[in-house]
């Protein structure tokens, strides 16, 4: 079993011993480190982080741990639930959040999962920021919120639909401008992940 710590986040296999796998304790550790880094490096009156996940078996568990850890750090969570990576990235900007966490292990087998960390521009962290988070995690020097300063979780269920509308509304969208779009031919990459759930909406519009 494996736990890989890198500047882009943390990924590993579910279950097993701490520090060797992506266990609940490791998830809380790195979510706390990210929250600590965010509050030290981004100036804001109040902090909000967008969190979304893919359809992996462990996704709901990992996201619950991440969400509640952020709440414990005094950070509000916008919970997108099942979501795509680009949708989480766009939502950080659209909702004016201070950061984002994508819970996905991309192409890896089902036993894997990961926390992919975003800045306030909806971009993956640079090497310097990633290294600082690893250092914070190693030190385990966290300052959790008091009971009156706990964050809150706000579910958002229409993020992907909003993302699709924004893409279709782009000024240079050649698909909508094409008067002969009925004759367009499409090649779709079907998968068991979330993209397949939203192809019908894209094609309909």
Structural account:
By secondary structure, the chain is α/β, with parallel strands linked by helices. The protein has helices at 24-41, 59-72, 85-94, 127-139, 159-168, 174-177, 195-204, and strands at residues 3-6, 9-13, 48-53, 76-82, 99-103, 112-118, 153-155. The chain has two domains: 3-157, Alpha-D-Glucose-1,6-Bisphosphate, subunit A, domain 3 (Alpha-D-Glucose-1,6-Bisphosphate, Chain A, domain 3), CATH 3.40.120.10; 163-204, no CATH class. It is 39% helix and 18% strand. The chain has a seven-stranded mixed β-sheet, sandwiched between helices. Helix 2 links the parallel strand 3 and strand 4. The chain is globular. The mean pLDDT is 88.
What are the defining features of this structure?
205 residues, Alpha-D-Glucose-1,6-Bisphosphate, Chain A, domain 3, 2 domains, 7 strands, 39% helix, globular
Task: From the alpha carbons, calculate the radius of gyration and give it in angstroms.
Answer: 18 Å
CATH topology of the largest domain: Alpha-D-Glucose-1,6-Bisphosphate, Chain A, domain 3
Low-confidence stretches: none
Continuous helix count: 7
**Strand element count:** 7
Choose one word for the global shape.
globular
Structural class: alpha/beta
Q: Order of strands side by side in the largest beta sheet?
A: 1-2-6-5-3-4-7
Helix content range: 25-40%
Q: What does the main sheet amount to? A: 7 strands, mixed
Give average pLDDT, whole number.
88
Q: Into how many domains do the coordinates divide?
A: 2
CATH superfamily of the largest domain: Alpha-D-Glucose-1,6-Bisphosphate, subunit A, domain 3
Strand content: 15-25%
CATH class of the largest domain: Alpha Beta
